[in-house]
Design a protein that fits this description.
Rossmann fold, six-stranded parallel β-sheet, globular
């Protein structure tokens, strides 16, 4: 059968690649093509467009890429008409993929959505649009499934794919020995995001904060896994201002660092859930441009405006603040240093956080998530035929 996949950023590329492999296990003759990145290509997909380095976050930031993605939409719509896939598989990247899904639905192509827009937090109108063009949502969060069912769309709660992939490859002690970390030293993980604009917004304040901490505590070792979408050429100039402060490692080591770390400072996103599944205490940070933050607040669902803002996935899943967040104006060097010192010097707080995070795996479904999603994808494709 003929499958069209659409993913637009590194995390979507990663999950789509895993799903492609699961689809091939169930349909070895599958023809798979679409929009995505190098991981999807490695999994055997024919990549027509790779937007993973164009990925952005925020309304105005995305608007700057408008003409680029308008061209992509036109090109992919034409190919949908010409190649007539049996199913479209939408993996995250909601702003663009919603437009593309509406084009697919108009062509009577069924659409399976994995990681739908977070309309439960903002823009309920988008949920109605999703229901109008998506055939089947494979939901990764239980409250997300309940929300979308209210709009009459077919939803199956499958669990979160990270359950199957978050596993260190070496024991923490072995990893520490390999990187010459002594027993007295504390490992601190830094993850400023997988988008270039995130790095530009977050890495400077991270580095200034940890440099102040390192000045008073010589037993701290800082490690930064370099995301494939970023590259050392972007982070190099920032790190050069703090020589010897941070060790960079390959992104393939990220789970090993999480398992070995006493603490992490992470940009809000998928990495926070990965770290949570490994029980790593963390501080979650994020900052949008002022105009985008203002628009986000306007578009936020009315009932959410009165609630304390939470963006970290562990907090959203637990429905309360389990890990500290420093967002927008709260993200300052002074605040980050204060929160860092509090967690680092209070083992009881870190232990309490680890205990809270231990409950997350049971909330995210049993293993075998992508096999369940692949069954949904094949089912919709067969029904179309």
């Amino acid at each position: 059968m003929n499958y069209f996949f659409s993913a637009g950023e590194h995390s979507g590329d990663l999950h789509a690649a895993a799903l492609i492999r699961a689809v091939r296990r169930q349909d070895p003759a599958a023809e798979i093509w679409g929009m995505g990145g190098p991981l999807m290509a490695e999994a055997g997909a024919e990549i027509i467009i790779d937007p993973t380095r164009e990925s952005t976050f925020g309304y105005l930031e995305a608007a700057k890429k408008y003409l680029v993605f308008k061209k992509y939409l036109k090109q992919l719509t034409r190919l949908l008409k010409e190649r007539r896939p049996d199913v479209m598989v939408w993996v995250d990247f909601g702003g663009f993929n919603l437009l593309l899904a509406e084009q697919a639905a108009a062509l009577s192509i069924p659409v399976v959505c994995l990681f739908p827009p977070s309309a439960w937090a903002y823009s309920k109108g988008r949920a109605a649009r999703v229901a109008g063009c998506v055939t089947h949502i494979a939901s990764v969060l239980p409250f997300e499934a309940d929300f979308y069912r209210e709009y009459g769309v077919k939803v199956t709660y499958v669990g979160h794919p990270l359950i199957d992939r978050v596993t260190p490859t070496v024991e923490p002690e072995r990893w520490r020995r390999y990187h010459h970390v002594s027993k007295e030293e504390k490992v601190v993980l830094l993850m400023p995001g997988s988008r270039r604009q995130e790095v530009r917004q977050l890495l400077p304040v991270m580095l200034e904060a940890i440099s102040q901490m390192a000045a008073v505590d010589r037993q701290l070792r800082f490690f930064l896994p370099v995301a494939p979408t970023i590259g050392r050429e972007l982070i190099g100039p920032y790190l050069s201002s703090y020589p010897g402060l941070v060790s960079t490692v390959d992104s393939s080591e990220v789970y090993n660092v999480m398992a070995a770390a006493e603490l992490g400072i992470l940009a809000s996103g998928t990495a926070t859930l990965e770290a949570a599944l490994l029980g790593m205490p963390m501080i979650v940070i994020y900052r949008l441009g002022r105009a985008s933050a203002f628009l986000f607040k306007i578009l936020m669902n009315e009932e959410k405006r009165e609630e304390p803002l939470m963006v970290a996935l562990p907090n959203l899943i637990k429905r309360r603040r389990v890990v500290p967040e420093l967002i927008q104006h709260e993200l300052t060097t002074e605040n980050l240093v204060a929160q860092f010192r509090l967690l680092l010097e209070t083992e009881g707080l870190r232990a309490e956080m680890r205990n809270e995070l231990k409950e997350l795996p049971s909330l995210l479904g049993p293993p075998g998530i992508m096999e369940r999603v692949a069954t949904i994808v094949l089912g919709e494709a067969v029904q179309k035929r």
